[in-house]
TrEMBL record:
Membrane topology (UniProt): Multi-pass membrane protein
Annotated protein name in UniProt: Sodium Bile acid symporter family protein
Annotated keywords: Membrane, Transmembrane, Transmembrane helix
Stored InterPro entries: BilAc:Na_symport/Acr3 (IPR002657), Bilac:Na_transpt (IPR004710), Na+/solute_symporter_sf (IPR038770)
Species classification: Bacteria, Bacillati, Actinomycetota, Actinomycetes, Micrococcales
TM region(s), chain numbering: 26-47, 59-75, 87-111, 117-139, 146-173, 185-203, 210-231, 237-263
Major location category of this protein: membrane
Amino acid sequence: MLEATKSPSPSNQPPLNPALAAEARIARIAVTVFPLLVVAAGVAGYLAPGAFKPMAPSVPYLLGIIMFCMGLTLTPPDFAAVAKRPWAVLLGIVAHYVIMPGAGWLIAVALNLSPELAVGLILVGCAPSGTASNVMAFLAKGDVALSVAVASVSTLIAPIVTPLLVLFLAGSYLQIDAGGMVMDILKTVLLPVIAGLLARLFLRRAVAKVLPALPWASAVVISLIVAIVLAGSADKIVAAGGVVFLAVVLHNGFGLGLGYLAGKLGRLDARARRALAFEVGMQNSGLAATLATAHFSPLAALPSAVFSLWHNVSGAIVAAWLARRPLPDASTTPPVPASSQTP
């Protein structure tokens, strides 16, 4: 949720104005601090489960807050980017909903995960793009306009695509209530995003005042979700934690690498390939945790909690590495939309 960000200008272009430079610094700070908040929340949930377990029923409402914040950052130009480059956006959507669900299923089979953990990992793979993907694309000097477009569309179609993919890939492990998932995603994702969009359109001045605080608000809420999820499975973390961490690292790594490769095979430019790496490899783990808790068990939500931590750490590392690599088309920096999301 990085308002009015623009990619750093190449050497032959004017430097960023002070406001944009400040926002770039805010993005970097948020990406650095967010994993630390999640770690602290996870430790708190594990060490003091009694303090967080009673909050489990509030998880869907907490996710709704995050998605409302996402809606507040979206603007008409973000959606115009879809019409301008339908092929690139379509490639990103297909890559996201093919690579991550498929990788989740393959890893669950290869590691012989228990039914609950397998469903949890597959569910993470079937979720839409993660809310930090746009910031990572910005830091990596990627195509932020494409990143925002793919993230927005993947979120809007999630009420249909996510339940169908979970039913197809995880139905052999546990009974899947696809209809219930559709309704839950509509209530906790689509409606809050639309409400945020409407607020942005009709309450512009009020929204402008709160935009700087949205990244931190979302970071705190996501961290709280992680604490609640880990509190619910605290008694099983010691036994399952190692294999879950391995599964999540592999899952996220495949997503980042294959997402970049998909952009290369689709003959997209270097900036677009960087954007697709994050759009494919970073998931909305908050949604996955909410659905796992509501439809399965706290243990099924454990992969989502671990993913929430790891994909922000790995994303920040990959973004920093890519930012230091030269772009072959650096002289043709594309314009960046007026909004992107929060970690």
